[in-house]
């Protein structure tokens, strides 16, 4: 029978015995007061783990003393881990070393003048579990302050990366004692570093949910990593020039490195809506990168006019958060005249992106088309009306099949109009469901869109140009 079983038994299985039994079990390894206290962290309001651990150790010492009075074979081993004995009694498995009675207690310190539990505990002597990492909390806080300098933030959180060795030692202890009331070591590190910084930064909040900045401290390697919450700025863009893709379009041959096919540019297009909007804001925010999320996208050769297309610009790792976005949008407009115009700047967050990207909203288009034979305006209008009557079954167009699932979608046209221009070309305007491919609706995509204007008119149609006249996300 070892010391911990003995205590459990002596305490008659009551709650006190459970606590002390756990403590005695945990103290079979040389752990510090904090590490001991953490096992009971969920009990004892307003106590630090260190106070908790110290208290349990002292009570345990008193109980062990009582047991050793009655010559408890395991008592000595246990007492070796207790505060008053840690400096006077070596840990030994030999029952013959069990002290007789309590003489040993009184030899500690200068005897009469000092109560036994003022003797130093294990603290600072090399804790088996934490290797005294809490001695370095101040150092870690200084590292955090260093990393934070120059970064603008109003809320923060401390996270902790515990090395695998410490983590597995913690698990070993938890295997021995029921850890239901225990707190993980990393939580105490986070709290301790957080407390120091909270006091130093009175204008900043500790925020668990979505802090502007998270510092990940690594107590073993004395490192701090910084994660800055991205900025999300919403707006609408109008694309005024054909030949500009919505986002950066890396060259497929070299994947952006630069090769003869892309003239060393790494990209197939000189610029993109993303590149016309992103850098101005990224530089103001001192961010690392930018990404444009659009409510759908138009083809490279298609204009977007009217009230523009909603987008959200994401700026990663911004060191500056207080931006004048009205001013930045004006700057973008001044530098992209004739190419892109941005409107309605607003702040938003990541949560809006999935909805923005998946929403299918109606759009109004105008198309300039060339017919393979002469068509009069009445016939064209009749054909369009027929097209608008029933649902249109559209199989994923050949040209996008490599990046979209190949399936048949059903979409509708809501309004149609047309006229024949002097040169015999047609000008067609339609109000269509989101997700309907308009070029294919007109030329038919070799039968993949049914019906199409070409199939109804029984001729061939070439789409010369297409323009998004408006994105109707606000009228639904
Ligand atoms: Zn410890
Ligand atoms: Zn290339």
Give your account of this protein's structure.
There is one protein chain. The protein has 4 domains: 3-118, no CATH class; 133-228, THUMP fold (2-Layer Sandwich), CATH 3.30.2300; 231-358, 2-Layer Sandwich (Alpha-Beta Plaits); 363-471, Alpha-Beta Plaits. The chain is 32% helix and 22% strand. The protein is built from 15 helices and 15 strands. Strands 5, 6, 7, 8, 9, 12, 13 and 15 form an 8-stranded mixed sheet that branches. A 4-stranded mixed sheet has the order 2-1-3-4. It has a 3-stranded antiparallel sheet with strand order 11-10-14, with no helix packed on it. Helix 1 (3-10) runs antiparallel to helix 2 and helix 2 packs across helix 4 (49-69). The longest helix has 21 residues, at 49-69. Mean pLDDT is 86; it is low at 84-124. The chain binds zinc ion (2 copies). Residues 251, 253-254, 258-259, 261-262, 266 line the site of one zinc ion (ZN).
Descriptive key words:
15 helices, 476 residues, binds zinc ion, THUMP fold, elongated, four-stranded mixed beta sheet, eight-stranded mixed beta sheet, alpha+beta, Alpha-Beta Plaits, single chain
Summarize this structure briefly:
Helices cover 32% and strands 22% of the residues. The chain has 476 residues and is of the alpha+beta class.
Q: Topology of this protein?
A:
Layout: H1 3-10, H2 15-26, H3 33-38, H4 49-69, H5 75-79, H6 103-106, H7 137-148, E1 155-160, H8 164-176, H9 185-200, E2 205-206, E3 213-218, E4 223-228, E5 231-239, H10 273-284, E6 289-294, E7 303-316, H11 325-335, E8 340-348, H12 352-358, E9 363-371, H13 377-389, E10 392-395, E11 408-411, E12 413-420, E13 426-432, H14 438-443, E14 449-450, H15 453-457, E15 461-471
Helix pairs in contact: 1-2, 2-4, 7-9, 10-11
The structure holds zinc ion (2 copies).
The site of one zinc ion has 7 residues, from α3.
């Amino acid at each position: 029978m070892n010391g911990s079983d003995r205590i459990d038994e002596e305490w008659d299985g009551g709650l006190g015995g459970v606590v002390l039994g756990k403590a005695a079990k945990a103290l079979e390894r040389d752990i510090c007061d904090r590490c001991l206290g953490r096992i009971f962290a969920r009990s004892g309001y307003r106590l630090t783990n260190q106070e908790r651990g110290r208290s349990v150790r002292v009570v345990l010492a008193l109980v062990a003393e009582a047991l050793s009075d009655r010559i408890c074979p395991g008592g000595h081993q246990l007492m070796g881990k207790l505060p008053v004995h840690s400096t006077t009694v070596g840990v030994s498995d030999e029952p013959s070393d069990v002290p007789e009675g309590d003489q040993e207690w009184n030899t500690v310190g200068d005897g009469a003048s000092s109560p036994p539990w003022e003797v130093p505990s294990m603290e600072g002597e090399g804790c088996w579990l934490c290797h005294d990492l809490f001695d370095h909390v101040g150092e870690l806080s200084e590292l955090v302050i260093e990393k934070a300098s120059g970064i603008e933030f109003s809320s923060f959180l401390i996270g902790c990366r515990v090395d695998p060795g410490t983590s597995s030692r913690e698990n070993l202890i938890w295997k021995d004692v029921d850890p239901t009331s225990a707190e993980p070591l990393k939580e105490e590190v986070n709290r301790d570093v957080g407390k120091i910084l909270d006091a130093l930064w009175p204008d900043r909040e500790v925020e668990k949910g979505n802090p502007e900045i998270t510092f990940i401290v690594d107590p073993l390697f004395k490192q701090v990593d910084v994660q800055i919450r991205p900025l999300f700025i919403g707006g609408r863009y109008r694309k005024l020039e054909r030949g500009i893709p919505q986002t950066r379009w890396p060259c497929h041959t070299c994947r952006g490195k630069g090769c003869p096919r892309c003239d060393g540019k790494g990209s197939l297009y000189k610029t993109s809506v993303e590149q016309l909007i992103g850098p101005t804001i990224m530089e103001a925010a001192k961010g690392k990168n930018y990404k444009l999320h659009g409510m759908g996208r138009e083809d490279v050769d298609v204009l977007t006019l009217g009230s523009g297309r909603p987008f959200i610009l994401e700026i990663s790792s911004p060191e500056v958060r207080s931006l004048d976005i009205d001013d930045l949008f004006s700057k973008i407009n001044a530098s992209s005249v004739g190419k892109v115009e941005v409107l309605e700047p607003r702040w938003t967050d990541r949560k809006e992106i999935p909805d923005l990207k998946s929403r299918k909203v109606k759009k109004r288009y105008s198309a300039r088309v060339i017919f393979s034979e002469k068509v009069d305006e009445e016939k064209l209008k009749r054909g369009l009306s027929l097209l608008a009557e029933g649902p249109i079954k559209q199989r994923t167009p050949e040209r996008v099949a490599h990046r979209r699932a190949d399936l048949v979608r059903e979409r509708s046209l809501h309004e149609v109009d047309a006229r024949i221009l002097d040169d015999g070309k047609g000008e067609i305007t339609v109000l269509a469901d989101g997700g309907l491919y308009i070029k294919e609706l007109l030329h038919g995509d070799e039968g993949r869109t049914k019906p199409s204007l070409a199939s109804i008119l029984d001729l061939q149609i070439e789409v010369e140009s297409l323009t998004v006249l408006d994105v109707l996300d606000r009228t639904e």
